[in-house]
Amino acid sequence: MKVCGIELKGSNAIFTCLEGDGVDHHFIAENTRKIGLDDSKVQQDIKDFSSAINSFFEEMKFDRIAIKARAEKGRFAGGAVSFKMEGLIQNSDFPVDIVHVASIKSKLKGVEIDLTSVKKYQEESLKLATYLLL
C-alpha cells in the first residue's frame, strides 16, 4: 500500500510517504518533503500550490492520503492559511482523510517508530503515514 501523511504547518504542507505495510515499509517520494504556499492572498500562488499538490498525487498514485487534524479554535488553533491549504488539498481529485491526533496516538500506542529516519519537521507526518499503514 502507498500512503501519504500530511501535516500542515505555517504555509507548508509537510509530507512523509511510505509504501508497504505496518511492519515492513520503506520511504518513497523522498525528494518531495514539503510544498509551500507562497502568498495565500495571490490567486496565482493558490493555483500553483493546488497544481503542485494534484501533480504530486497523480504522479505517486497513493492508496491513502491523510492530513493531521488541527484545532479549529483555542490557543493551539491552526492558522487561516493552513485551513485554506487543507481545503485545497481536500479539493484535489483524490480522496483525502482528516485524522484526529487522538486517533493517531491510540493506534500507534506500543508501536516503535524510528524518528531518526526523517527530518525533525517530518516527525508528525511520519506518525500519520505509519498510522495509515496499520
CATH superfamily: Ribonuclease H-like superfamily/Ribonuclease H
SS field, number of helical segments: 4
Structural class by sheet pairing and helices: alpha/beta
Q: Any idea of the CATH class?
A: Alpha Beta
N-to-C series of helices and strands: EEEEHEHEHH
Question: What fraction strand?
Answer: 15-25%
Shape: globular
Radius of gyration: 14 Å
State the distance separating the first and last CA atoms: 10 Å
Number of strand elements: 6
CATH 2nd-level architecture:
2-Layer Sandwich
Indicate the mean pLDDT.
94
* Number of discrete domains: 1
Share of helical residues: 25-40%
Largest sheet: 6 strands, mixed
The third-level CATH topology is: Nucleotidyltransferase, domain 5
Q: Uncertain runs with pLDDT below 50, 5 residues or more?
A: none
Summarize the structure.
This protein is 36% helix and 24% strand. The protein is α/β, with parallel strands linked by helices and 134 residues long.
Provide a descriptive summary of the structure in words:
The protein is of the alpha/beta class and 134 residues long. It has a single domain, classed as Ribonuclease H-like superfamily/Ribonuclease H (Nucleotidyltransferase, domain 5, 2-Layer Sandwich), CATH 3.30.420. The protein contains four helices and six strands; from the N terminus they run ββββαβαβαα. Strands 1, 2, 3, 4, 5 and 6 form a six-stranded mixed sheet that branches. Strand 1 and strand 2 form a beta hairpin. The radius of gyration is 14 Å and the shape is globular.
Record the SSE blueprint.
Blueprint: E1 2-9, E2 12-20, E3 25-28, E4 34-36, H1 43-60, E5 64-68, H2 80-90, E6 97-99, H3 101-108, H4 123-133
Parallel strand pairs: 1-5, 5-6
Antiparallel strand pairs: 1-2, 2-3, 2-4
